[in-house]
Amino acid sequence: GALAAATATAALALSVSPSGLVAIAPLVLALPWLWRWLRAQGAATRVAAIALLAAASTSLVLVGFADATLGDVLESAAVHRWYYQTFSWYQEKVHYQTILSFEDSSQWARRAPVVLTIAVLLVVALNRIARALRLPNSTAVLSARRWTALLLSSGGAGSADNGGDPLRRLLVSSAGCSALSLALLAPTPTKFVNHFGAAAAAPTVLLAAALLRSPLSAAMQPDWLRPDWWRHRGSAAATVGTAVLVGAVSWTFAGPNLWRPYSDRGQPFGNHLSASADHPDLVGMRPKLGPVQLANPAVWVAVALAAAGWIWWRRRRGRDAALTPDQAVLLTGSTAMVVMIIVVFGWAPLRQYPGWSVALSAVRSVQGEPCALAGYAQVLVDTAAQPVPTGPAMTTGAFTAAAQRPLPVRAPNPGTLVWHDFVDSDPRSDSDTGPLTSPAGLLVTPWFALPPAGGTTLDSTNLGGTTLLVPLLGVRAAQQVTLEYATESIEGGPDPAVTGSTPLRADWTAQHSQWRQAAIPLDRLGPRRPASVRLVIRDWTASPADDWLAVGQPRLARWRPLATLTTGRPVYVDQLTAALMPCVEQVGVEHGIAQAPAMLVLSDEEFGRGFLDLGFELDRGGTQIPASRDATIVRMPAALVPGGPPTLPWGRVERVGYDHPVGLVDLHVHTVRRAGWTRLPTLAAKSYHGNAIG
Fold it and tell me: What integer pLDDT is reported at residue 554 of this predicted model?
């Protein structure tokens, strides 16, 4: 009965994910016992038992095909292989390389369970070999015992090697199950950053047993001190096993304490503002105690030597030592890891307070505020009263030549004045049209009169703006963008005296087809609020087709909570931010149609966009590709208020404007009947996708 229940559970695990294959590991280890049991039973009992196990394994069919046909399952597997990274069983080393070298997946706490599990498996295997070598030196017997030691034993109660020790049996059986689980992961196409979690059950038991009973207890028995052939072999086994654990603990702490995005806010150790650099200081982000890095093997060698000294001192007085050097290293290292996890994730939100953190969101959620991030996030939103132009713009060069040409991207707001220098260069002309001191184009916009600072109603949207937004678009290379301001009223003359100027800075890492807005707080332009502003753009480049710029008229805005913009609107929130914003109306896909978002909320911290923008990538089958191709995206300046200590940018908020109405779909749903193995035209092919990326 228990074996049938275990078989059904393993089958159900396979219906969840391919990595559920690891659930059969305990069943494989039980096969020797099952074989002996079947041989001892009659024919009728054998047939009944085999039929019961076969029936239990069919639970996969009921769940796995409850809402999908065989053809759908095969197509789903093909699509996953085509659009995402998959590795063959012989490429399993890639998963280990990921947790050991991949910048944002090699954190010390993430690699710890895998590294320690493999180390303990090696030590257990070494201990089993040491036990086999204690037999008489018969070649046949020695060979048989070596194979028996290396095979992953189930550790039955009658095993003589375990000496009736239940902890020893648990250690050996969990080691066998752990090794088999890791082997069963190899053929499964799991996502490479979440690969090892599926096999966590057996290694958890293994590490717990290793903390209670030393994997090297055979080599550390008191009789290893006797001056015979076993003394040297036992000493060598103990030394090698302890060295393996010293290396494992050191290698674990060699990972950085880097938890981008979101969870890295306030984390100690190193300069986390450099995490976005091409070559961040990952060594400086390693955990340490004062000036001593925990990745230094000397720390753990000292622990092993201290334990060896304790053993020597106890045995000199005729008493046995309950601790061994390898166990001391494993116990001290594991304790340090647990304590360090509690410290860094408890200390980080305290350092970041009063700024937002993931822990603060969790506390707010318990208090009935599940969408705390949307409350902390502030976005610059246009006010009702906007600056008014007072005359025409002055243009020369490329700006004059492009005046009659259409905009490369539609205006960021309806009715917004936009100027650009996007012109096609004549390939027959000389690109060296003049010295760099002579601009290839000049734009001086009209003065824009700012409305009064105060509002006229109690409606907060009519309050005066606090910040100027200047929309910018294009590929900036040699353009100089400057905001000039005047404190005198334009009513005193058409061209007031310039009080001051400031260069505009924008995020030029965005796509050249995406508007970004440079934000200029008015209170930073001097003690007096400007009465009017204008833009001066000098284009120094001689290749406007390669380097071009578009600029929109300045607009007034003020900070507003993000929740006021997302309420009642379809929003695309990326996979990392969605869990922190459960209150937004997340867009979905139904009947093969992706809902068009009105806003985008994306994580940032200068994380790799190739990972965060999967929904907009053609090569990954992104569902939001139509939105990126048929819409104008305007990045809105956003910040977390209060901000707390300096951190990398928390995220990106973008407004989506469509060239045509969306959602006008005449949808009809019909029911058709077809064989379960029938497959429709596949999506996992170049004929559908256009690129051979599978």
Answer: 92
Q: How far apart are CA 521 and CA 558, in angstroms?
A: 9
At 268, the amino acid letter reads P
**CA atoms within 13 A of residue 21's CA, in its CB half-sphere:** 15
Under DSSP, the state recorded for 425 is P
C-alpha 554/C-alpha 385 separation (Å) is: 12
Q: Are 640 and 356 in contact (CB under 8 A)?
A: yes
The rounded distance, in Å, linking the Cα atoms of 83 and 463 is: 48
CA pair distance 133, 127, nearest whole angstrom: 10
Three-state DSSP class for 682?
A: coil
Q: Is 552 helix (H, G, I), strand (E, B) or coil?
A: strand
Query: Tokens at residue 145, please?
Result: 């015992």
Residue 501 has φ and ψ, to the nearest 5°, of -150, 160
Cβ neighbours of residue 627 closer than 8 Å, sequence gap 6 or more: 572, 594, 596, 597, 616, 656, 658
Whole-number pLDDT of residue 219: 46
The C-alpha R_g of the chain, in whole angstroms, comes to: 34
**In contact, 640 and 352? CB cutoff 8 Å:** no
Whether 619 and 691 have beta carbons less than 8 Å apart is answered as yes
In sequence order, the β-bridge partners of residue 640 are: 377
Note the pLDDT tens digit of each residue in 125-134. 887 776 666 5
CA 364 to CA 345: how far, in whole Å? 17
Alpha-carbon distance of 133 to 571, in angstroms, equals: 66
pLDDT digits (tens, 9 = 90+) for 555-600: 999 998 888 888 888 899 888 888 888 888 888 888 888 888 988 8
Half-sphere exposure (Cβ direction) of 39: Cα atoms closer than 13 Å: 6
The CA distance from 452 to 147, in Å, is: 87
Domain boundaries, given as residue ranges, for the chain? 1-84, 85-351, 388-553
Question: Between 507 and 378, whose confidence is greater?
Answer: 378
Residues 177 and 202 sit within 8 Å (Cβ to Cβ): yes
Phi first, then psi, for residue 201 (nearest 5°) are: -65, -55
Inter-residue contact 576 to 603 (CB < 8 Å): yes
What's 204-258 look like in SS3?
Answer: HHHHHHHHHCCCCCCCCCHHHHCCCHHHHHHHHHHHHHHHHHHHHHHHHHCCCCC
- 637 within 8 A of 346, measured Cβ to Cβ: no
pTM over 0.70: yes
**Is residue 224 pLDDT above 50, yes or no?**
no
Alpha helices (runs of H) in 458-599, residue ranges in sequence order: 563-566
Res 424 pLDDT > 70: no
Cα–Cα distance, 69 to 75 (Å, whole number): 10
CATH for the stretch 388-553: 2.60.120.940
- 51-55: Cβ within 8 A, 24+ apart: 52/4, 53/3, 53/4, 53/7, 55/4
Q: What is the residue type of 620?
A: R
d(CA 265, CA 280): 16
- Work out the pLDDT band at 149, boundaries 50, 70, 90: very low
Dist. CA 264–CA 123, nearest whole Å: 35
pLDDT of 35 > 90? The answer is no
Measured CA to CA, the distance from residue 82 to residue 92 in angstroms comes to 19
The pLDDT score that the predictor gives to residue 436 is 39
- The predicted-structure confidence for 600-650, as pLDDT tens digits, reads as follows 898 888 776 666 777 777 777 778 887 777 788 888 888 888 878 888 888
- Listed in sequence order, the residues at least 6 apart from 77 whose beta carbon sits closer than 8 Å to its beta carbon are 189
